[in-house]
Every structure is written in structure tokens, then in C-alpha cells.
Amino acid sequence: MRMQDGSRIGKWILRIGKRNLAGLTSVTLIGLLWMAMPAPAAARQRATRALRSVGIETADGGWTLDLEFQFPIRYLRHTPLTPGRTLRIQVDPLDLGDDEMPQGPIRENLPIPRGEPIPLVEIVCDVSVPGEPFVEMQFERTFAFDVEQGKDFRHLVIRVTPPGQARPDDGPDREESRSARLLTRARHSIRDGQLDLGIALLTRVLELTADDPTNRNRMDARELLGLTHERKGELAHAQAEYEAYLADYPEGPASARVRQRLDALLTASAAPRKPLRAPKRTATPSGRSTIDRELFGSLAVRYFRSESLDDNSGGQFLSTNVLTDVDVAGRLEAEAWMVRGDLTGTFDVDVAGQGRSNDARISRLSIHAEDRLHGLEATLGRQRRSDSGVLGRFDGLRVAGDLGPHYTLSALVGMPVESTADTGPNTDTLVAGGAFNFEDVWLEGLQGQIFAVGRRTASMTDRAALGSEIRYSTERT
Description:
- The chain is α+β, with helices and mostly antiparallel strands.
- It is 22% helix and 43% strand.
- α2 (174-191) runs antiparallel to α3.
- β7 (120-126) and β8 form a beta hairpin.
- The strands form 2 sheets. The protein has an 11-stranded antiparallel sheet with strand order 1-19-18-17-16-15-14-13-12-11-10. Strands 2, 3, 4, 5, 6, 7, 8 and 9 form an 8-stranded antiparallel sheet that branches.
């Protein structure tokens, strides 16, 4: 639901913009000046890729995959419904006025992130058959699959579990489902540095599974509770949890790991020994880097030559040009941060030298950074949004920060992009706004946003809006 305001809201937004947006605008312009070039003639935009990235997270004895597409899609169905080694997902591309929709046949393999323990062989997306696009995943072993629409129309969530393992929502015991969800929330809280919340959630998992000592969620919660106490410096509590795990599960799946941590705690509390003699030679560092580096994408180059044929005068040369489609992404990732750069565009070069201007279209040219330890992220450059009151592309900066496990605050400032043929920023128009997001506050599966946005062209305010969006999704059938 959206509400258009009056002049009072517009004046309020402009008053804030005059004080706070000047500095951000100058930073944004510095990052975008190198994009400026003369306005080109029109050239067709083509999407050369279908898949953007895949995120993999270990959960509930299996894995959860977050598959992101280049264009909006709708999940239709998947096979097999019984365990198997090949998962095929049929999707339906949605034409929402996005000029990144696929044009022509596309068949590609998405690189699998290195270092992930999931036995995934390949991910293939085929958009070459009209009306029947699909994604196919090949695994080394037999698994059971659950597929659902992700957080928006560009994501699919795939849950992969070993066959025969009861998934949280399949059994008659609703406490099992609650404990699994609480365990997932606890892992996210610990990852975000909210250790007290994680301890409270893990303690609740132990209470829910008290009647089932062999429950896998209970095993994981007991181990994770000891580790969280250890991170907080509460060594006595950590030792008690480790000893309880080994007493209940002496041959458990994590018993060796827990025994090592317990031995380390006991050793650290003992009297220090005489220091070892310093080595004469410096050890050469070995092992893989703690920073993952990845570069992937596609490059397509086509040559065109045009002539006019006449029966009387013969052939007449018209033009010759080279059309290049570029879609490149690079990523640097560590445990606490991630930086990613994207470039998607089409470039048409006149090689005949007859004075025709070279054409270019840039759909995406941005740098995205995340600080996972503090829950911060920022994106600078040409980007596309479908929330916060912004529908389309803009050249600028967007920053967001978590205010806890359920709330996020974001702000953006930039210049709207009317067409991807505009390779330089439109300095005559400025857009700025902010948004407050909430998730799973009163009801699990409930998501919402409250936003305010304003747009100013030359010396006039041509748009000011205050609105909200609410979404609800559930896994119940």
C-alpha cells in the first residue's frame, strides 16, 4: 500500500536533503565521473546470463541454497518429488519491464563456490527452449529436495537433506519444527555477534528437546552452547556444557571436536610451562589463504557488415561494426566481510571509420561491500532497486545497517537513470530516501517496509512519497 503526500512532505524531505545529501552527492559523483562520455545513439541491450550467484549454508543436517537470477522469475515446480541425484526446477521468467530479460537462447553453468562441503557437481540453467526454462543441479549422492520462492522474484531457496531424514515440517511433532527454527536463528545471532540472544535461543532448544535425548538439534545446540560461552569468556559454563555433551553423546558426531575444545580449556587453566626455545629458522607460511577470490562472467563479440545490393549498380557498402556483450563479476570474501564488483553492458564500435558514434549501454556498474560482523552494507555505482520507493536504476550510493535480528535501516542518494544508453550520470535530477524494514516481528513469515523518498529536478520538486509494503509467506501447504 502507498500514499502520495502533499507539499508539506516534499518541503520536509527537501529540508533534510539540503543539510545531509550534499556530502553524499559529492562522494557519489567522484565514484561515477569516469563513467561519463558523450551521449550515444541507441543500441539493443541483451542479457547474456541467467544466473547471478548461489549462496550455500549448512542447516539441519543438510544444506540450504539461495539461487539468485539475473531477471525476475516465478517458481513453478520441481522434480523429483522423491529422493534422487538430479534436481530439475522449472521456472517462468516474469516480464516486469526489465530490460535485462533474456533475448535469445542462453545455456550456462554457474561456478560452485570453493571450499563448500556440499557434494554438488554442477548447476546448469537452460533458457534456450521457449516456454520451458529450467535449472538443473547434479549431486554426487542421493538427496531429498524442497524448493520455494525466495525473498523476492529473483531468488529460489533449495533445501537439500539426506534421504530418510525427517525434515522439520514433515513430522507430526511440532516441537521438532520449533527447535529446528530456533537453532537456525541461534546460529544467525551468533554469527552477527549477538551472543546473549544466541545463548537464550539454544537454552530454549534444550528445553524443547528434553524428552528426546537423541535429537540431532539437541546435540548441535549443546555443542554450540558451549562454544558460545567460550567466546564470551565464560569458561566455567563452557566446560560444563562440553562435559555434558560428552556424558550424553560419548560417540556423537562432534565428540572428537568437543573433546579437543575441553582439553584446550583445561590446558589453558593449568600453570604455564617453561617457554620453548625460539627456532633458528622462520617457518614458511603454508595453507590456503583466508580470503576467497573469484572472477566469473561472460564475453560475447559479434561482427556485422551491411551492404545494399542493386541489380543495376551492384553492391554498395553501408556499415560495419563490432558488437560486444560484457557480463563480469568479481568477489573477495572473508569470514567477516565481502566485496563484489559487477559490470554488465553492451558496446557497439564502428570499425569503418565513417563518423558514426560508438554506442554503449551500461545496465550495472557497481561495487558492493558487506561488514558481516557489524551488519553493515553499501553499494556504490549504477544499480537497480525495486523497493524503498525506487523502481528502476539510479547512479548513486545505498547504505544499510541491521538494528537487531529483525530490523534494518537503509538510506540512498543518487541520480535516476532513464535509459541504459545514458552512460553518464544525469546531474539535473536528484533522488534521495530512506527505509525501515522489519521481519518476523509479530508473526513468523511477516515482512514489511516503511519508506520516504523525494525527487528534485533542476529547482523543482517533482516527486515526494511516503509509503509502506507488507508481505507474508508461510511454508504451510
